[in-house]
UniProtKB/TrEMBL annotation:
Highest taxon in the source lineage: Eukaryota
GO MF annotations in UniProt: ATP binding; protein serine/threonine kinase activity
Swiss-Prot/TrEMBL catalytic activity: L-threonyl-[protein] + ATP = O-phospho-L-threonyl-[protein] + ADP + H(+); L-seryl-[protein] + ATP = O-phospho-L-seryl-[protein] + ADP + H(+)
Residue ranges the record marks as coiled coil: none
Gene3D superfamilies per UniProt: Phosphorylase Kinase, domain 1 (3.30.200.20), Transferase(Phosphotransferase) domain 1 (1.10.510.10)
Protein kinase domain ranges (all copies): 44-325
InterPro entries the record matches: Kinase-like_dom_sf, Prot_kinase_dom, Ser-Thr/Tyr_kinase_cat_dom, Ser/Thr_kinase_AS, Ser/Thr_Kinases-Pseudokinases
GO CC annotation: plasma membrane
Pfam families: PK_Tyr_Ser-Thr
Keyword Translocase appears in the UniProt entry: no
Protein name: Protein kinase domain-containing protein
Entry keyword set: ATP-binding, Kinase, Nucleotide-binding, Transferase
């Protein structure tokens, strides 16, 4: 369950020209100056569908011979019923572009460019030989980013649910994610929806953070960032409880992801929203850490999902802690005194 009810003044400023003009509901104007991130649509070839999301569809395509993913937002007549829904999609597009186009890090999916609305965006049919390309409504906008071939981290973990991951792989993936989040936080950006479904793996299994639709520049005053934003299961207690929050909500979500990466399973699979919220906020519910989990890794999880945000480590500290964990001996999956009885060791990958 994904929630995105917004915040107060923690949003990217939306007044003025370019991206901001869309949020005001004024539509696309030919008088708006071209932004540095606007793509040349003549170079964009959109092909097959990869995924469907809340605000549009993700396609695979080519941009100037580069393999790309194209996230198409559509708030035109087809499928968008109300002005409020259209405004929400405009806002999501503008926020995503405003945050993403400034980022440059090996663990963040590379932003290529975006289009603010065009009638020349063509979608290929499944039959590659067909000349009948469909044309999106003139109000459609798109965000173009690098194509990451390995799919989502969530799907990778699902595929390895039975055999689990080798410990060195767990640490490598966790380090990639922690370094990417550390970079975002150094730029004062709060992702606000850190989950394995929003992480991609390339062909070399390098993790890249994606989906900045609800990301925000961190407000100087935590009181200015409120709202139940994120995905159930990963949301920090203060977010679930509607309290002010800051970048430490991402740290909490990272702790949940770290447990998921280690155990290759979903946390809280059978809890309803009401039960989950009450248990996390008032009863300090957290995923159960398997006893075969190395104490150093378990300690990082617990520190990250501490109920008190100020006690959670910064992501740079998490990176240092992960780098300090010994992985050269095949993983150190089990404390030596538990080697004969740990039920999960035999299932751990090579």
């Amino acid at each position: 369950m994904k929630m995105a009810t917004g915040n107060k003044t923690g949003d990217i400023p939306t007044k003025g020209k370019g991206v901001g003009g869309l949020v005001q509901g004024q539509g696309i104007s030919s008088t708006i100056e071209k932004e540095e991130w606007e793509i040349d649509l003549a170079k964009l070839d959109i092909r097959n569908v990869i995924a469907h999301g809340t605000y549009g569809t993700v396609y695979r395509g080519l941009y100037d011979t580069q393999d790309v993913s194209v996230k198409v937002f559509n708030w035109g007549e087809d499928g968008i019923a109300t002005a409020a829904e259209a405004a929400a999609i405009r806002s999501s597009f503008c926020q995503e572009v405003a945050v993403w186009h400034k980022l440059d890090h090996p663990n963040v999916t590379k932003f290529i460019g975006a289009s603010m609305g065009t009638s020349n965006l063509k979608i290929r049919t499944k039959d590659a030989t067909s000349q009948n390309n469909s044309v999106l409504p003139s109000s459609a906008c798109c965000v173009v980013v690098e194509y990451v071939a390995g799919g989502t981290l969530k799907n990778y973990l699902i595929r390895n649910r039975r055999k689990k991951l080798a410990f060195k792989v767990v640490i490598q993936i966790a380090l990639d994610l922690s370094r990417g989040l550390g970079y975002l936080h150094s730029k004062k950006i709060v992702h606000r929806d850190v989950k394995t479904e929003n992480m991609l793996l390339d062909a070399r299994r390098i993790l890249k953070i994606a989906d900045f639709g609800v990301a925000r520049v961190e407000a100087q005053n935590p009181q200015d960032m409120t709202g139940e934003t994120g995905t159930l299961g990963y949301m920090a207690p203060e977010v679930l409880d509607g309290k002010p929050y800051n970048r430490k909500c991402d740290v909490y979500s990272f702790g949940i992801c770290l447990w998921e990466i280690y155990w290759c399973d979903m946390p809280y699979a059978n809890l309803s929203f009401a039960d989950f919220t009450s248990a996390v906020v008032r009863q300090n519910l957290r995923p159960e850490i398997p006893r075969c989990c190395p104490s150093a890794l378990a300690s990082i999880m617990r520190k990250c999902w501490d109920p008190h945000p100020e006690r959670r480590p910064d992501m740079d500290e998490v990176v240092r802690s992960l780098e300090a964990i010994e992985t050269r001996k095949g993983g150190g999956m089990i404390p030596e005194d538990q080697a004969s009885g740990c039920f999960c060791f035999s299932a751990r990958g090579p």
